[in-house]
Amino acid sequence: MSHTDHASATGARAQPLSARRTIGLAGAGLSLIAVSYGLARFAYGLFMPAFRESFDLTAGQAGTIAATSYLAYCLGTVAATVATPRFGARAVAVSAGALATTGTALIALSPTSLVLTAGVTVAGSSTGLASPPLAHAIAVRVAPGYRDRVQTIVNAGTGLGVAVSGPVALLADDRWRAAWLTFAVISVAATVWVRFRVPGPAAPSSTSPRRAKDDDAPHVAFPSDARRLFAAAAVVGAATAATWTFGQELLETAGGHSPTLATIAWIVLGACGLLGAASGELVSRAGLRRAWTVSMLALCGATAVLAAVPQQATAAVGASAVFGAVYIALTGILLIWSTRVYPARPATGVGLTFLMIAVGQSAGAPLLGVVADRAGLATSFWISAGLALAAAALAPPGRIRTA
Prior knowledge:
Protein name: YbfB/YjiJ family MFS transporter
Membrane topology: Multi-pass membrane protein
Mean pLDDT: 87
Number of helices: 18
Keywords: Cell membrane, Membrane, Transmembrane, Transmembrane helix
Oligomer: single chain
Order of helices and strands: HHHHHHHHHHHHHHHHHH
CATH architecture: Up-down Bundle
Subcellular location: Cell membrane
Main location: membrane
Low-confidence stretches: 1-12, 203-220
CATH topology: Growth Hormone, Chain: A
Helix content: over 70%
Number of strands: 0
Largest sheet: none
Radius of gyration: 20 Å
Distance between the termini: 9 Å
């Protein structure tokens, strides 16, 4: 069965949302991704210098703490993949918001590095729970012609969250606990929005005579084209771990910049990440294969610039901008790729793909931290650039075989 046929069968299981409710779902999904990824997870890198000073952490220890977030993300993704078809998108999405709130509050109140690790772990689990239910709700309830666009708009919430965390950090200055309490309050608001805008389980449409046959189809967990998809996702995770975890420290130490300049670069990274929402349009115009290759080469270039000239303010901010836009674009491409490999089970496809991103990041962060301790941060970034270059060869096939 072709991608279009599968998508049509999936979409026929419930009445599509109205335009107004589709916009509401997109807004709520964008906000949940913003707080779970941009605040609860990636803001750890923004505050890395403050955490290292407050808790006397080495780069290796800081990388290990980051890895707990990625491992929790893995567990959360598995839980969401299993729970979403059973309990519905709304329940799982609300759980993601609740974990983001709990994790950010724990970080804000942490008296020791052990509690900090617990908070980072809980916060990281929220990201794993967030993406599969939103992808499922969009694939099942949004009209077919708008699905890819809505998927990539929601996915761009990471950039929004990163962009918001920067000004909060600047206003808080050295009061990082106040910043994380602010993140917790924002997470509460996003969770409430999700509760009222993400649809719950819907009754099947009366115009779906083949629903039972589709549901009873044999489940293929790992179709042949999924192997390349998962490998590509894992390498993206490993190749981006250095920038997300140590980017701020690179600019402040090897680059010699002030915390203010480093935070501005972080804000630019997040703001440009919103451009990643255009990845759906890029895929429709250039195709998955070309969009992937161009984006990976851009990621390689941005990471290499950070490694080569972190002391050049214009180059560092520019490379951060490219990294933000390309990272969100790549995760959007992976999201679309996964829903094409698993068109009848979007939560499974997105869950497994984002799980592999987390596997790459959870392996990369501590290893790159050890490299940084022994050979310098720039070396870690050069390794990441090499991984991005290698990943360009893992482009999607011209014709995707589906599950």
